[in-house]
Give the backbone structure.
Amino acid sequence: WDQALQALKRVERSMGARFGDPANPLLVSVRSGARASMPGMMDTVLNVGLNERTAEGLAAKTKNERFAQDSYRRFITMFASVVMNVPRERFEELLQHMKAAHGVKQDTELDAKALKDLVRQFKHAVQKETGREFPEDPIEQLRMGIDAVFSSWYGARAVTYRRLYAIPDSWGTAINVVAMVFGNMGQTSGTGVAFTRNPASGEPIFFGECLLNAQGEDVVAGIRTPLPVADLAKTLPHAYRELVKTYRTLERHYRDMLDLEFTIQEGKLYMLQTRVGKRTGIAAVRIAVDLAKEGVIDKREAVLRVGPEQLSQYLYPIFDSAEESRHQSIGKGLAAGPGAAAGKIALTPDRAVAMQARGERVILVRQETSPDDIHGMHAAQGFLTARGGMTSHAAVVARQMGKVCVAGCDAVEVNDGTTVKIGPLLLKEGDYLSISGFTGHVYGGDIPVVASEVIQVIQGKLEARRSEKYQRFSAFLKWADEFRTVKVRANADTPDQAMIARGFGAEGIGLCRTEHMFFAEDRIPIMQRMILARTTDERERYLAQLLPLQKQDFIGLYRQMQGFPVTIRLLDPPLHEFLPKREDLMVEIARLELTGGDPALVEEKRRLLARVEELHEFNPMLGLRGCRLGITMPEITRMQTRAIIEAACEVTREGKKIVPEIMVPLVGMASEMKAQKDLVREVADETLKRCGAKLSYLVGTMIELPRAAVTARRIAEEAEFFSFGTNDLTQTTFGFSRDDAAKFIGFYMRRQDSCPHCLSTDVDWKEMVCRSCGVTIATKAENILETDPFAVLDREGVGAMMKMAIAEGRLTRPDIKLGICGEHGGDPSSVEFCHQLGLDYVSCSPYRVAIARLAAAQAALTGQTAPSAGTAQGKRNGTKASRAARRPARKSRTAPHRKTSRSRTGQSRKSR
């Protein structure tokens, strides 16, 4: 405090005025100075130092009684609301009454006498609300103001903002005490906020708003409609020329688009503040590219200037903002899938397909989705679920398909299959519903959406040369690729998804989930008959019907990938997922019996029910699935391997180089890997011999169990690549069920912001009192989780498993190919960690490929990689050349000319 008073003396000398002196008063503002920009989140107090005497002195000094009283009433409003917790509405009501009494609409129309009366009313309101007189001592005002602005670091909005943008609580804030200048001294004075470039589009034009005869908060508060900053060229031309000259100087100095706050006092320009300006993703790319082309920054810095998540704004359809503002939100869930969508409600996937066939837009509303719903999800514009988290089935498929999804919306209650209650509304199938994947908000009615140009170009609906946005998007990502060392693949199950992935620049498929191919309407009956088969011969008969269908799928994938690697996962989910639900079958059988249904059909349904009950598992996630299916039913692995290799042979004859990567799921033991690898090679080599083709292929595994990570040295004797399935690896490492964890992970991440008694976030953390329930809080709880481990890779636990598996795997096979194919492959923080581990590639949903490309480039520019194979402490230097030089050559398995003998110690192959 003593230092603050000493600094105040220096300001007094600089300004030629004294704080609290009625004859020559100095007024100051108290502002926050946080380490990271938090616009609007922290409190500010203007005009500190005003009281009855200094207000009279200010009026005499400026010969402007109205200005002095206007400043005084503003000060009381701001100080009382920020420092003394008097609701601001009290003062707004009194101001409105005063304007009505004088027959005016704007506060600028009130004269000095009216404003002086208002000051007296304001002071009385403060005394009535608080039981205290409004402080008259300027030093006491300053002390209380500083204390209040410090306390605003713990305000609810500041806490929420920090959580959203990962700003640590421990940073705290500084306080700036600044001499006041005044924009409310008449029509030659004013205030404004401006940006050196357009923050929405990135256009290189001076952009901003201003008000004459006003103070800074007026522009933000919307008390009056502000004017475009360019209007100052006519009203205050000298000040405007100074402002233009200043903004250009500042932008050259800071080398970025800036946010400026300024005041004009009686024609003279004063700059109050400048900081790097917030911008949309579209603006961020344009500004970075333009600054690089102007020679202000280089390409490296341009690539670092755009947040990976900002790129997603190029991709999403959005609601028409004017239309959205006319609708009231009826519920809110997790914003789990990109964009915005509107359509008619469908409560089952079959109805969604039927409605889509009639040309209707559909929103599929479910308690939760399952793989059985895939056809309805494909038909729908978007999905709304009552349950599930950010990596639930609905969310994963939404990102995979590029569909809109709001998951885990507590307001949704699906009733009898024909109606759904969402918040206050009871809706029926066929009613319109609109959902925002940006915000998680749900609206009744049909809100129009605006399509993304980038998506239209990639889908071939718009020529690239006709879209400036696409051209900037594509050019910027090519810059990023110049620095990237980690390859980016996509998780894709169909040729259409593969086409989208290639359009976004994917360098292969890192995960093809073959089970999704079996859920197509023409295949699910065959799959169900295969499951119901009692003998191997019968099962193989149905698998033979599936083989040509699956082969055609693989041909489509290979053609789209044009020689890039395609990693195909063998069948993974438990078989009961392909069968109807037990309860549904029981209801159907009862209905058939009551209505005298066909006895043969009843018997078929009974057999199906018996098989469903036989396959029932208490914990199917850890049951008969993954490689366990291939080991207990080897005919499934044989069919899939044949389809993979036959498709590769056919596309190879077209002149394309194909290297399939066959991935065995859920391996926990080296013996499991060996059993499946031997079977795959036997079938693959026989197929190649029959086709008369020479073709390379790899056989590897997903690392998704802790035991696989711990025993990776043994598994690497059999596997030629590891792909980390971080969805299941996170589940099995934490012991969390991915979908069920959504019920408590939110609380795990917000404990520090909430009252432990009532969970309210309306807490006075300075006084440690909950404003909702009144309970005194003993200590501020630490968060149990800082981030959702299903969204952001857990480096301490899951990451440690990955490090162990990489180190152990390389001991056996120094050139082992390493990747990640979980949902984390599209998360920028997780991509950065994968770069540090030295992975060869990340794989993510097609619509996250661009984000992953940029994240990988930024990781290469800012970070270090883990020691590479065969080097104790070596670190990569972030260039493709050094990477290629240091890594041993990798050879694919070639058949039928491969050697039959192979060292089980995993000797390193010949170096490049």
